[in-house]
């Protein structure tokens, strides 16, 4: 138990569906992250939030839309996805964004399958 | 470009020692992290190195050589529960983590 929870753990959706992934951290951290993990590939950073402000968006397609209503919650809204978007989506949090000793704590991920 | 290289898969025997290597080329360096990820679970933090040398933490040790752009994770007295993927990540000058693809470690009895 890392103090970061994600729901749902598994999601199957069609290309025309709209769904949302939820992440909650119970660690009192100020920074939150969305990553995409595909088999045998490095983790891809998608979005970074610091104190509810988006500070990074790594050229992610607009069919992925993040939302951070407060420093404990992070959402990833999904719309009109493609089969190649099937992956494990990981949420992480850390105390501060620009502290070089900062450890990121990960949730268990949502396994997404797009049909 | 920025790059982290580590072996895709390694196999070792229960009770033995294994060394997982990681080489990196990044824009700046603010430390190197090792994470462990069991199948279907969250990556969990193992170690952080920012100065050259060896950091020991129980059965696990991590080594860093900044001049060589090289690190390794050493696992001693291997147990079956050590079967997992081990992820190497470097924090670059923008404080962004650059990740390797991970090394899948298989432990055999």
Write the layout of secondary structure elements.
The complex is a heterodimer of chains A (115) and B (109).
Chain A: E1 4-7, E2 10-13, E3 18-25, E4 31-37, E5 44-50, E6 53-57, E7 64-70, E8 73-79, E9 87-94, E10 105-106, E11 110-114
Parallel strand pairs in A: 2-11
Antiparallel strand pairs in A: 1-3, 3-8, 4-5, 4-9, 5-6, 7-8, 9-10, 9-11
Chain B: E1 3-5, E2 9-13, E3 18-25, E4 32-37, E5 44-49, E6 53-57, E7 60-65, E8 70-75, E9 84-91, E10 97-99, E11 103-108
Parallel strand pairs in B: 2-11
Antiparallel strand pairs in B: 1-3, 3-8, 4-5, 4-9, 6-7, 7-8, 9-10, 9-11
Quickly describe the structure.
The complex is a heterodimer of chains A (115) and B (109). Chain A has 115 residues and is mostly beta strands.
Quaternary class:
heterodimer
Low-pLDDT runs of chain B? none
Protein structure class of chain B: mainly beta
What is the H/E order of chain B? EEEEEEEEEEE
Query: What pair of chains forms the biggest interface?
Result: A-B, 23 and 25 residues
Measured on Cα atoms, how large is the radius of gyration of chain A? 13 Å
- N-to-C series of helices and strands of chain A: EEEEEEEEEEE
**Number of extended strands of chain B:** 11
Q: Estimate the helix proportion of chain B, in percent.
A: under 10%
Whole-number mean pLDDT of chain A: 91
Radius of gyration of chain B: 13 Å
Q: How would you explain this protein's 3D organization?
A:
- The complex is a heterodimer of chains A (about 120) and B (about 110).
- Chain A is mainly beta and about 120 residues long.
- Chain A is about 0% helix and about 55% strand.
- In chain A, the strands form two sheets. In chain A, strands 2, 4, 5, 6, 9, 10 and 11 form a seven-stranded mixed β-sheet that branches. A four-stranded antiparallel β-sheet of chain A has the order 1-3-8-7, with no helix packed on it.
- In chain A, a hairpin with a 6-residue loop joins strand 4 (about 30-35) and strand 5 (about 45-50).
- Chain A is globular, with a radius of gyration of 13 Å.
- The termini of chain A are far apart.
- The model of chain A has no long low-confidence stretch (mean pLDDT about 90).
- By secondary structure, chain B is an all-beta fold.
- Chain B is about 0% helix and about 55% strand.
- Chain B has strands at about 5, 10-15, 20-25, 30-35, 45-50, 55, 60-65, 70-75, 85-90, 95-100, 105-109.
- In chain B, the strands form two sheets. In chain B, strands 2, 4, 5, 9, 10 and 11 form a six-stranded mixed β-sheet that branches. A five-stranded antiparallel β-sheet of chain B has the order 1-3-8-7-6, with no helix packed on it.
- In chain B, a hairpin with a 4-residue loop joins strand 7 (about 60-65) and strand 8.
- The mean pLDDT of chain B is about 95.
- Chains A and B meet through strand 10 of A and strand 5, strand 9 and strand 10 of B.
């Amino acid at each position: 138990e890392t103090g970061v929870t994600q729901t749902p753990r598994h999601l199957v959706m069609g290309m025309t569906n709209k769904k949302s992934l939820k992440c909650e951290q119970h660690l009192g951290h100020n920074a939150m992250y969305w990553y995409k993990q595909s088999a045998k590939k490095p983790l891809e950073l998608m979005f970074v939030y610091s104190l509810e402000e988006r500070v990074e968006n790594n050229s992610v397609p607009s069919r992925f839309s993040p939302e951070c209503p407060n420093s404990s919650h992070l959402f990833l809204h999904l719309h009109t996805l493609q089969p190649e978007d099937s992956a494990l989506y990981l949420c992480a949090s850390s105390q501060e964004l620009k502290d070089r000793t900062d450890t990121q704590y990960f949730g268990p991920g949502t396994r997404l399958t797009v049909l | 470009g920025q790059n982290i290289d580590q072996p895709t898969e390694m196999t070792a025997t229960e009770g033995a020692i294994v060394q997982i290597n990681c080489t990196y080329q990044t824009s700046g360096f603010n430390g190197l992290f090792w994470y462990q990820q069991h199948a279907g679970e969250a990556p969990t933090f193992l170690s952080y190195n920012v100065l050259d040398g060896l950091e020991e933490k129980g059965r696990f040790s991590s080594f860093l050589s900044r001049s060589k752009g090289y690190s390794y994770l050493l696992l001693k007295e291997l147990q079956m529960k050590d079967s997992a993927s081990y992820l190497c990540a470097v924090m670059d000058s923008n404080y962004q983590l650059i990740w390797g693809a991970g090394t899948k470690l298989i432990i055999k009895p």
